[in-house]
TrEMBL record, chain B:
This is Interleukin family protein. Coiled coil: none annotated. It comes from the Eukaryota. The gene is Il20. The keyword Transport does not apply. It is found in: Secreted. GO terms for cellular component: extracellular space.
Length: 204, 139
């Protein structure tokens, strides 16, 4: 903990947490005895570095905030390398900028398998997928249990409440798994766990 | 990326176009529409137009509004991301610009240079949907 007259240190341990195209900048708090420390965040895309005199752009939602996390999703909206920096303010005192080590490119975001629920509605095989935002498409694989070689695929670009996959044979088990696909970064998640259901009626 | 550019532009279109008082002049559409460009020339003209926006438009569009500036940054960085791909396409496909199309592109530069830089840049940015519509039609 620092006394009042010491130079205000720049924020440290600056890092990005990026999951499913949601990106958050975090850092360690700067602690000053009896004072409220506020932080401000700025970003710089490749365009700013190469065409706009290496200018930095403030994120007003993260200007003079007390939290040590900032949602930068709205501003990281291109698949190019970004620089990010944070500084601290206490009253009239201001620290140097602390800068993220290395660039951040959204292409490295961690993609989780989609949450999925399948329903046997009589003879109809239905699937419900979580809405993960406009950037996400889904690849759904489904097959009769035991007939993995005859797997069928359906690409879903826009989420509606429930999706009809197939009309099932009576008393037959069907299995389903799904993965997300993000066109903007041309990457897919791992597949979800397989889920199986049985159609109504008795096998003929 | 084009979808992201379009959503970024849609968010600021009204604000940007409101800053453009000159209603009787167009940068991209005067005297001929982009849609008149031959399909064989599209690869080259898109490449030229991306360079035009990167080199001569975005940098002159800084406003007093932080939100607008952030959206322009998003659009510019998305343009850069696409430009990177266009360069590869340009190199692989030997995108030649026909005489007629180059005249069209020169007309765009003439329209641009007929105004002061800030007005020309703001007007060009305000016409981004004309470019996006033409690009999407070309896909």
């Amino acid at each position: 903990i620092l006394d009042e007259d010491a130079l205000l240190p720049a924020p440290q341990n600056i890092s990005i947490i990026s999951t499913n195209m949601k990106h958050f900048l975090t850092w360690s708090p700067v602690t000053i005895q009896g004072e409220t420390v506020r932080y401000s965040v700025e970003f710089q895309g490749e365009y700013e570095r190469e065409y706009a005199n290496e200018s930095w752009i403030p994120i007003c939602e993260c200007s003079l905030i007390t939290a040590t996390v900032c949602n930068i999703t709205e501003d990281i909206s291109a698949t190019v390398p970004y620089n990010l920096r944070v500084r601290a303010d206490v009253g009239a005192r201001r620290s140097e900028w602390g800068t993220l080590k290395g660039f951040f490119n959204r292409i490295t975001t961690y993609l989780t398998p989609p949450l999925m629920k399948i329903v046997a509605d009589g003879y109809h095989l239905l699937v419900e997928l979580e809405d993960m935002g406009p950037a996400f498409q889904f690849c759904i694989l489904y097959w009769k249990k035991g007939q993995e070689s005859r797997m069928q695929q359906k690409m879903v670009k826009e989420i509606s409440s429930t999706l009809h996959l197939d009309t099932m044979e009576a008393g037959t088990d069907y299995c389903v798994k799904a993965q997300t696909y993000v066109e903007a970064i041309n990457r897919s998640s791992n597949f979800s766990q397989m889920q199986c259901v049985r159609a109504q009626g008795d096998r003929s | 990326n084009v979808n992201e550019i379009r959503s970024g532009f849609t968010a600021i279109k009204a604000n940007i176009q409101a800053r453009d008082p000159i209603r009787t002049v167009s940068i991209l559409s005067h005297p001929h529409s982009l849609h008149k460009i031959k399909s064989s020339d599209k690869c080259c003209i898109i490449h030229q137009l991306f360079n035009f926006y990167m080199d001569r438009v975005f940098k002159h569009c800084t406003t007093e509004d932080s939100y607008i500036n952030r959206k322009i940054s998003s659009i510019a960085n998305s343009f850069l991301s696409i430009k990177r791909k266009l360069v590869q396409c340009h190199n692989q496909n030997d995108c030649k610009c026909g005489q007629e199309s180059m005249e069209k592109f020169k007309q765009i530069l003439t329209n641009y240079e007929g105004l002061n830089v800030t007005s020309a840049a703001i007007k060009s940015l305000g016409e981004l949907d004309i470019l996006l519509d033409w690009m999407e039609k070309s896909r």
